[in-house]
Design goal:
By secondary structure, the chain is α+β, with helices and mostly antiparallel strands. The chain has 5 helices and 6 strands; from the N terminus they run αααββαββαββ. It has one domain.
Length: about 180
């Protein structure tokens, strides 16, 4: 019983450490630069991504999402919603999990809103959760993988890429996205 409490305390401490290391909010200029760099990396992974982004009504880009923990996990990142190639609104992504989480990792996320209806629904929500929207297709092979025409008909496409670290989980289930005041 004592070791279980120690494990839980260690997990909580890891989440607090993770959140404190990323809680220093980036400036608007820093986010803009990171988003631009992430988009360039995304285009380099597959030339077809440029056409896909041009057909999207909006692209939500999180250039640096940090995920980690011991038993109890958490994640955090900041990014921007791009419409017509320009950053128009800023958002944070966060999430928490309990289970077999161990380690620390970083990755990039790009969520493409392929229909105006999907983009409008996202923009009018107050704290949008990815797992709550069944119209999201997460690319299982990452941003460099192939996708079929049936997948491309989904209203929202999500890509996770640039994974670095010791956590291999690329699930976006339960991730909450909140508008920032920037």
């Amino acid at each position: 019983m004592k070791s279980r409490h120690l494990f839980t305390a260690a997990g909580f401490a890891a989440v607090v450490l993770l959140c404190s290391s990323v809680s220093s909010a980036a400036t608007k200029t820093q986010i803009d630069e990171r988003v631009h760099h992430a988009m360039q990396q995304f285009y380099q992974l597959d030339p077809a991504h440029r056409d896909l982004v041009s057909r999207a009504k909006g692209a939500l880009v999180f250039p640096r999402v940090t995920k980690g923990g011991v038993g109890v996990g958490g994640e955090f990142g900041e990014g921007a919603l791009r419409i017509d190639g320009k950053n128009v609104t800023y958002y944070s992504v966060s999430g928490a999990s309990v289970g077999l989480t161990l380690g620390l990792a970083k990755h990039k996320e790009i969520i493409l809103f392929m229909s105006q209806e999907a983009l409008d629904k996202f923009m009018t929500s107050h704290g949008w959760a990815i797992g709550a929207d069944t119209g999201v297709a997460v690319m299982s092979k990452g941003a460099g993988g192939q996708y079929d025409t049936q997948t491309l008909q989904r209203p929202i496409l999500a890509f996770v890429f640039g994974e670095k670290g010791l956590i291999g989980d690329v699930s976006l289930e339960g991730t909450k996205i909140t508008k920032l005041d920037k």
